[in-house]
Amino acid sequence: MPRVNETGQTGYNARVEQFRHVEYPMLDGSVYLDHAGTTLYPKSLVDQFAKELTSNLFGNPHAASAASQLSTSRIEDIRLRALRFFNADPADFDLVFVANATAAIKLVADALRAAPDGFDYVYHLASHTSLVGVREEARNSLCVDNHQMQAWTEGRCPLGDEAGNRPLLCAYPAQSNMDGRRYPLDWADRVRHWGRKTYTLLDAAALVCSAPLDLSNAETAPDFTALSFYKIFGLPDLGALIVRRNAENVFNAPRYFGGGTVDMVVCVKEQWHAPKTRFLHERLEDGTLPVHNIITLDAAIDVHARLFGSMQNVSAHTAFLGRRLYRGLASLRHANGEPVCELYSPDPDSTAGGLGSGPVIAFNIRNSQREWISLTEVEKLAVLKRFHIRTGGVCNPGGIAAALGLGPWEMKQNFSAGFRCGSENDIVAGKPTGVVRASLGAMSTMSDVDSFVNFIAEFYQETSLPSPALGPVSSQGPPNLRIHSLFVYPIKSCGSFEIPAGVDWEVRPEGLAWDREWCLVHQGTGQALSQKRYPAMALLRPSLDFERGELRVTYAGQIPAHLPRELSIPLSKNPALFHPPASRSRPSRVCGEDVQAQTYSSPEINSFFSNILGVPCSLARFPPGGRGPSMRHAKAHLQKHQVAPTEPEPRPPGSFPPSPPDSDSEKSRTRRILLSNESPILAITLPSVKALNEEMQRNRPGRAAVLPAVFRANMVLAPAADTASDHEAQIAPYAEDWWSSLRIGPRRHEFECLGACRRCHMVCINQETAEKSDEPFVTLSKTRRFDGKVFFGVHMCYGGQLQDTGQLPTAFFEAAARGDVRPLVIPWSFVGSFFLPLLYLSFPHTNRPWLYRLRWAVAATIVYFHVRMLQTTTASDEAVAYTTGLAAVWGTIWSLRLLVFTRPQWDAARIVCRLRRREKEGRRVNGVKKQEEKTQEDGILADMTVPDESVAAALAQGYEYVWQSYPADAPFFTRLGWSADLLTSFRGAGWNYAIPSIPHPPPPPPFSSPDSTCTTTTPLPVRLDQLPLTSRSGSSRSTTYATFRSSRFRQIALAYLVLDILVTVVRRDPYFVMGPEYPLHETRPPLVPGLYSSWLPASCSSQAWCGQFVMRTLRHFGALAGIISGLHFYTAIAQVGGLLHAAGGHTGVAHRMGLTPVHNPDDKQSRRRWEDPILFFLLQPVGALVQSILTRLIARIFPLTTTTTQTTRTLRRTTTFLFVLFWLHLTAPLLIDDMSRVGLWMFEPIPLSVLQLAVPQWREDPGSWWRWGKRWKPAPSLFLSAAQSSGGMGIGNWGWSLARGLWEGIWI
Q1: Is 395 annotated in the active site?
Q2: What is the Cα–Cα distance from 570 to 576, expressed in whole angstroms?
Q3: Ranges of Basic residues compositional bias (predicted)?
Q4: How far is Cα 1293 from Cα 726, in angstroms, rounded to an integer?
Q5: How far apart are CA 736 and CA 755, in angstroms?
Q6: What does pTM read for this prediction?
Q7: How crowded is residue 941: how many other Cβ atoms within 10 Å of its Cβ?
Q8: What pLDDT, in 10s, does the model give residues 915-932?
Q9: Could you report the per-residue pLDDT of 633-650, keeping only the tens digit for each?
């Protein structure tokens, strides 16, 4: 019968309140409600244990000394006492000491697994995870519920009897560790009487915490009982397996034996041992027992009996408190009558079968609209209020699934969505993934119960019906704001570094430069340290010293005098500072994600942080620009409360809008971050901080206001100071919830708002003193909780235009200093395309087959060099960076052509000028006998239609022009010059295989032909008389220096004027700055911008980048590709041309630095696609084919006659022009968009704008006619390239590239 104590409370032990502050001083100010995990140990137990150890000498029980014999005797006495604690007769039971209940369960599973035919397994739905895991060792397994267990007790075995003699193990908990529901203990006996040989395993760990376990009847008791003593007494950390002697034969199958479990072992010549057979525990307790833990158990039983009497008293006490807690939580109602708590534990007063329930209450919390409150948020607030509870899956997967209605497919889907045990996103697809569990113990009091119920009521019970959320407050315009302060946090979770006012600071895709680029990781686990566990991290104050290139860290707290207070860390990414990647045993872990950070190897650096924080840790760096495991992505997204209603329809009462079904699992856009938790940039507003402090003062007058620093924001915004009287300068608190974007500065840099920032109790740490309190999180939980989560501040990312491309060179030089990229360095970057083939061709191999075969190795080396160049190399200048990719692919093609696809030392010859040789009468010249003295060039000069001045002067001075094949017998430097001329000629007019588009003399017969008479000593003369003035393609040559200078000046002037017009117009069109995702001006007709944005830029780019020298380079290689693929020659040229430009885009500095101006990263149409340039060039032969067909069709319809010749030609030319314009309009965006996305338009090609100088209306400002040094940086290389494009590469372009390459190489 339940007893009534002196207070009139049935079963309540009021004595606990009298001794608790003495026996449990660790509970002062705290409420401990996790006794199902482990109960608490009293102070007198610790004192008695210490007295026991200091009064006795305990040795290893396996020895014969007095100390060892004392240990042995005490262990056996305590074993017997522990059996009697559960009313177990030692004649019927044996007790095996183990580490805990899980170890006891595993001991049974290992024994049955060793059986000859294994075992089958049936376990109850409410089993602990440790019981569930046994199924992996069984041949067959099945999870059953109450109905199936009841049917089994009536003779219907769930697995049947088909397995023959294979043993069957049935396991179930005496009490669910999740909801406290208790199950019949007689199941253990009733299932043994039916069918096959069945053993029973009872998990009593949860039951014995607060109820007696009676094993007095050995016939009905379970075969195996697993339990943990620390759940009963608090100490020791010890468990036990109680084995019914009738089931001891199960442990005969295992073959392993350990120290102390055998009487004899033979190792030499024979393999034999004799196990101990007297007691089961002697065979199962491998090695030395935990002597001191077992001694502690003796003291624990004594102290427990003195404090609480019997376990029946504990059971009555905890049952009373359990009913009180259940009724208190069940009574909580919102203002609309909805319950606050969804209870999963059975009602203690109405438990079926009279089994009762343990003092464990499992529940979840809903708001007045029946939306779930996040478990993580409940635990955060409970921690601050010093309530110790358990949340999550509580290691009971079957019970959780049944209580929450989670099907297997839902749990697997949650796992695929990223949910893991301990994840903060605990509401997935509109359902919770765990519970809140409060469990009571022998030392719990009514005050504990009432305090917890009041805590739930204070923070989660809605006692009034606030007005429905109607969305953002309307205003007459956007607020006028200013940036109050900017912060970066170089080391994650450490102090801030305030960016000085007036200092330009780079904004990267990952956030502000240098923000959260370092972190401290635990040396054992690799887990990133946080202020939540180590508040002293707030006193580590980093500062950036760019003049010295150092990150200085100063500790602002108290430290011993012998420890340094300041540390300097180089900003450079010198590999010597870090551990080699291969030496890392495991990746670092940040916010639940594995990252491949670089850990510093310096003992000085790591010991500085370890000594200050008192934890073994290392400094690690996570530099920007990573890929794969070195890359993280933002998780921020708009929350439900930030989405304004589309219609002003009435909503159900309540202040908290419903949570979206997938709010915790939905995927945000792919935005790169470094070590920040959720987004690149975090912003707060001072009006919101002020409103929060005012609310705190209303609730708790006199409390000090919190500073903005506790929110650790990068950007603190405030109303504009100079317009305080203007209503537009006022900003409502929490107005940032409704912002979609911010535009900052005169250039209107745009920052996209990603969503509200979810807060944890780290905001309660004072960033100046590292002291922790419960504010402001307590007030935020009451005023800023939406969808069960607490929010303050707004996540942002930089999404503005890359108009100020100064950030590109800055990003490049920083990345180069870190070693993430390599600069284009001259002459090193041309080793593959120039120096290697030059050196190889300088050695004769016409008579050396082995050297000729070596060309494959040289070609492979060149290909590897250029592949590495494509992977790692770029430049600070957009044009040079783009050219890097072109040069890598072109160098590969050009080298393969000279080394693999042609035989220059057999077939190539160049035109050289040498002194004329006179032939005497009667001598033979080229096999023809001369009758009179004459020169080889006599008559040629006279036969030339229009002689060049330089040629005429050379002939007049006694020189001649001849074809020179490879000078194999000449000195090395002669061969070197011949090879250099070959490599740099671009197949101009001076070679026997010059392209036909330029005027050139007829080539001689093939030198490898048997009929050829040309040798090194008898070269063939060049037929200058057959050198045309104009080629068939219309290219002309100049015959005088005056005409040459005049024609080139006209070409330069025309190219300059075209560039000027294009640049001036382009600057008015954002398309050429930002890419195709930004719309054109709406004032122009739809077709005109398309034509303008495709045809004119395509023409300009073709003139600047796809000049004649590129086509000269690709002709031979393209012909081979065309033969192999079966395509037309021009299709092969298109393939190579597209590959060139695709490579150029890949090495573009904007693309390589991750600053590609993409408006929507998730939109496939706005991403840079490497195949677009290739597709553009492949489409041009198609257009040529269509145009050819169209021309022939017009020729048939309108044939040429004497009367219609001019009209027909005009019609054909007009049709061709319109078709070309139309075709480029359709296809050019493939190339132009790619150039835009890699930032190729982001530089200034001309120094002075003639158009703006002549037409003031086109000027952006009075001085905008001078272009260099303005908004876009100058790029003389483009101007020189465009000017020289029609006549080959000039020294100006090479000089500029050489100067830039040398500067970048020396600087790096």
Answers
A1: yes
A2: 11
A3: 630-640
A4: 56
A5: 9
A6: 0.60
A7: 14
A8: 876 654 444 332 333 344
A9: 555 555 555 555 544 444
